[in-house]
Write a structure and sequence with these properties.
Blueprint (H helix, E strand, L loop, with lengths): L6 E7 L10 H10 L2 E7 L4 H10 L5 E6 L1 H14 L3 E5 L5 H5 L6 H10 L2 E9 L2 E3 L2 E5 H8 L2 H7 L1 H12 L5 E7 L2 E7 L1 E5 L3 E2 L3 E2 L11 E6 L7 H10 L8 E6 L1 E6 L4 E4 L2 E5 L2 E13 L9 H10 L16
Length: 326
């Protein structure tokens, strides 16, 4: 029998999530069939998640978050402090953390993963003390998050993102940023700076082709083209994580650094605006235990990761994409 037999699960539910509340009863039944005792707590706003975990941690042996990436990230700091393992029932639009961890999108299969009790330790990124699992960004993605109508997101899902993105692209401008790591600094004119902790973001894009959510690093990229419409040529490389090969894309791998802008700019973490620049980024290695399927061995991935670690980029060095694809 599993070590989680008869353990107490605190299940946090966002009833407004796109996949909604109608499927929660079968999920609870599935978890309890896996010998868990489930207490359901609903939340109306993301800040309530952490407060609920702090308030109810004494009556739980594990936390289950039902919702999208924003809901899961909102639980991160409280879960870290509690030391409780976390399960994920993906009810959002993109569900990128679940994708990174190979958690099934089918809700009952995701519940089975939790009931089986196999967990892995993953990294957590923070920006100004706010946690994120996938990506934190400044620029285009933040403008997209601000411009996305919640009703449009709920009704059309990923299509809603695409419609909002077209509107953002037509009016986007570059901004000046200073990135500092270990006392060395570079300055850039950029449309977007993205900082990845995990592997997937934006509904299946890849942060960097060797990125993993337990590699102990943050992967940064900066879009420094003069013509934003060149993004259309880069779309395939964003899906594979090879966008760093383009001359106009600056990349770096770090554990802690700062980003400053000429005026405060909002920072988007996993789809939610939580803070603004100046921004201090840091990775917290293997900070949370999450229920997930066994890690699949992907041929070539380990060697690729070793090569990437051996070629970590100094922010003060030459532009990393020089001489690459144009």
């Amino acid at each position: 029998m599993s070590k989680l037999d008869k353990r107490r699960a605190l299940l946090l539910l966002n009833p407004k999530a796109r996949r909604g509340q109608e499927l929660i009863a079968p999920v609870v039944e599935r978890l309890e069939g896996g010998r868990l005792s489930v207490t359901v707590e609903t939340f109306e706003a993301l800040p309530e998640i952490a407060r609920d975990i702090v308030r109810l941690r004494h009556m739980a042996d594990l936390v289950v978050v039902c919702g999208g990436d924003g809901s899961v990230s909102s639980a991160a700091m409280a879960v870290m402090e509690s030391g409780l393992p976390m399960g994920i029932i993906p009810m959002g639009t993109a569900n990128d953390l679940a994708r990174t961890l190979n958690i099934p999108m089918d809700l009952l299969q995701a519940a089975d993963v939790i009931a089986r009790g196999q967990a892995r330790l993953i990294d957590v990124g923070t920006v100004n003390g706010h946690a994120f699992f996938n990506v934190a960004s400044i620029g285009l993605s933040t403008e997209l998050a601000q411009g996305l109508d919640p009703a449009l997101k709920k009704r059309f899902g990923r299509l809603g993102y695409a419609l909002a993105a077209m509107k953002v692209l037509t009016r986007a401008t570059r901004f000046h940023a200073k990135i500092t790591e270990k006392g060395a600094a570079i300055e850039a004119e950029t449309y977007q700076i993205a900082v990845g902790n995990g592997r997937h973001y934006g509904g299946g894009n890849v942060v960097e082709e060797t990125a993993e959510i337990d590699d102990g690093h943050l992967d940064l990229y900066s879009l420094e083209m003069t013509n934003l419409w060149k993004l259309a040529l880069m779309l395939r490389s964003f899906r594979s994580g090879t966008h760093g090969a383009w001359r106009e894309v600056r990349t770096a791998r770090c554990v802690e650094f700062n980003i400053e802008t000429e005026k405060p700019m909002p920072v988007n973490t996993d789809g939610e605006i939580v803070t603004s620049t100046p921004a201090h980024f840091k990775v917290h290695p293997k900070a949370i235990s999450v229920f997930a399927p066994p890690i699949l061995s992907i041929p070539g991935r380990t060697e690729m990761f070793r090569r990437a670690i051996g070629a970590d980029l100094a922010l003060s060095g030459d532009h990393p994409g020089a001489g690459a694809a144009q």
